[in-house]
C-alpha cells in the first residue's frame, strides 16, 4: 500500500485541505518516469508526492528570494531515485527558454500550486507565465494547479455590494458606501478600493485565514482571460473546477485520502464538514493540455471509477486520466418526431471548451461581464 505524508494534527485546517487537494491532483496526473516542472516551488517542495509517483526528473523554478538555493542543497543531499534541476528565475517576468534550452518540449506535467494569482497583476505577466509553461510542455503534456476561485470570491463580494445598495436606498447606511470586506468563520477577504467592476487584470485583495498572523495579497484571476491567453500560448483549456465540486465528484475515492490529513474535515460518511466546504470553496483546480495531433481531444478531470482505490500506484491514476475517460462519439438516430428544424446549426464552440452551459466551476454566479461570450 502506498504511504502518505504524515500531516501534523495541529496544522491549520486550510493548510491541511490545500495539501490534500494538491495530493489528489498530482496523483491523477503524475506517473512513473515522468518529467515534472514545478513553477514557484517554494522553500518546501512537495517531495513526498514526487517520490511516491516514481517520477523520472524534477525541475524546480522559483525566484531567488524564495530560498531555492537552500532547497537545492537539501534536495541534492538526499539520494533521490530521480534526477533534479533548480533554477532561480521568476516564471512570470523572465523567459525561461534561454536558461532551459534542453528542457523545451520535454516536460510531461507543469504544475503551479502556488502564486498563479500574482501573475494576473498584469496581462504581460500572465502571458509570460503561460508562454513558459507551454514552451516546457511536450505535446500532450498537462499544465495543472490550484488557485483561489475568483468567481466564488467575486460573487460573495457582489452580494455585499447588493446589500449595501439596498441599505443605502433604505437609509440604513451612509450613501455610496461599498463594503469591501468578506468575512467567514475561517477567513477574511478585503478588497483594495471600492470598485464594483471586475477588471481583467490587477484587481487586488487581501486574504487572511483565522490561523494566520498576516494577510497575503492576491489578484483575481479572470478565467476567460486565463483561457484566452493560454490558447494564445499554445495550450488548450480542459477544466476549471471548484475544489468542493472536485471533491464531491470523486468522493467515493477521495474520502479515504482526506482522512490522512487529520481529523474534523469530513463526517463519517465522507461528506465535507461546513468549515471544510467554506475553505475548499475558495479554491479551484485548473487543467490545460498542450495539443498533440496523435492524441484524442483533451479530457476533463476524471471521475475515478467505482472500486478504484486512491492508494493504488501512480500509474493507475495516469491511466485513468489519459485513457479511461476518453469521450464516446456516437452517431445519433432521429425519430420522425425528433428531427431538428431546417435552420442552420449554431457554430461549434472553440476547440477544447465543449458546451459552455455544461461546464462547472468556471465563473459561478458572477456578474455578466465575466461570461465567455465577451471574453472569447
Automatic annotation (TrEMBL):
SUPFAM superfamilies: S-adenosyl-L-methionine-dependent methyltransferases (SSF53335). Its EC number is 2.1.1.56. Residues 334-376 are annotated as: Disordered. PROSITE patterns: RNA_CAP0_MT (PS51562). GO terms for cellular component: nucleus. Residues 9-291 form the MRNA cap 0 methyltransferase domain. Keywords: Methyltransferase, mRNA capping, mRNA processing, Nucleus, RNA-binding, S-adenosyl-L-methionine, Transferase. It catalyses: a 5'-end (5'-triphosphoguanosine)-ribonucleoside in mRNA + S-adenosyl-L-methionine = a 5'-end (N(7)-methyl 5'-triphosphoguanosine)-ribonucleoside in mRNA + S-adenosyl-L-homocysteine. The keyword S-adenosyl-L-methionine applies. This is mRNA cap guanine-N(7) methyltransferase 2. It comes from Carnegiea gigantea. The lineage of its organism: Eukaryota, Viridiplantae, Streptophyta, Embryophyta, Tracheophyta.
Amino acid at each position: 500500500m502506498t504511504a502518505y505524508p504524515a500531516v501534523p494534527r495541529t496544522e491549520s485546517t486550510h493548510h491541511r485541505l490545500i495539501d490534500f487537494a494538491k495530493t489528489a491532483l498530482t496523483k491523477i496526473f503524475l506517473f512513473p518516469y515522468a518529467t515534472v516542472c514545478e513553477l514557484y516551488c517554494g522553500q518546501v517542495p512537495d517531495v513526498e508526492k514526487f517520490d511516491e509517483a516514481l517520477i523520472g526528473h524534477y525541475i524546480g523554478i522559483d525566484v531567488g528570494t524564495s530560498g531555492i538555493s537552500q532547497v537545492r542543497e537539501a534536495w541534492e543531499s538526499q539520494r533521490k531515485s530521480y534526477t533534479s534541476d533548480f533554477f532561480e528565475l521568476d516564471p512570470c517576468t523572465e523567459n525561461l527558454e534561454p536558461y532551459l534550452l534542453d528542457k523545451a518540449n520535454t516536460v510531461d506535467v507543469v504544475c503551479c500550486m502556488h502564486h498563479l494569482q500574482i501573475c494576473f497583476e498584469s496581462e504581460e505577466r500572465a502571458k509570460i507565465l503561460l508562454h513558459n509553461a507551454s514552451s516546457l510542455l511536450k505535446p500532450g503534456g498537462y499544465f495543472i494547479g490550484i488557485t483561489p476561485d475568483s468567481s466564488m470570491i467575486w460573487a460573495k463580494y457582489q452580494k455585499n455590494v447588493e446589500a449595501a445598495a439596498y441599505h443605502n436606498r433604505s437609509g440604513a447606511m451612509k450613501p455610496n458606501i461599498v463594503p469591501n470586506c468578506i468575512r467567514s468563520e475561517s477567513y477574511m477577504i478585503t478588497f483594495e478600493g471600492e470598485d464594483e467592476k471586475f477588471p481583467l487584470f490587477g484587481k487586488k485583495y487581501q486574504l487572511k485565514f483565522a490561523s494566520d498572523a498576516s494577510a497575503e495579497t492576491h489578484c483575481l484571476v479572470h478565467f476567460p482571460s486565463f483561457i484566452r491567453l493560454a490558447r494564445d500560448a499554445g495550450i488548450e483549456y480542459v477544466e476549471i473546477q471548484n475544489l468542493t465540486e472536485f471533491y464531491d465528484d470523486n468522493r467515493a475515492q477521495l474520502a479515504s485520502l482526506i482522512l490522512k490529513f487529520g481529523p474534523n474535515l469530513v463526517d463519517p460518511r465522507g461528506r465535507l464538514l461546513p468549515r471544510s466546504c467554506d475553505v475548499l470553496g475558495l479554491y479551484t483546480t485548473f487543467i490545460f493540455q498542450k495539443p498533440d495531433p496523435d492524441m484524442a481531444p483533451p479530457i476533463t478531470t476524471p471521475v475515478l471509477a467505482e472500486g478504484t482505490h486512491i492508494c493504488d500506484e501512480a500509474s493507475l491514476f495516469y491511466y485513468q486520466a489519459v485513457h479511461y475517460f476518453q469521450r464516446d462519439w456516437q452517431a445519433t438516430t432521429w425519430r420522425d418526431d425528433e428531427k431538428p428544424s431546417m435552420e442552420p446549426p449554431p457554430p461549434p464552440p472553440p476547440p477544447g471548451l465543449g458546451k459552455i452551459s455544461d461546464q462547472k466551476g468556471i465563473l459561478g454566479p458572477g456578474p455578466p461581464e465575466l461570461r465567455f461570450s465577451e471574453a472569447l
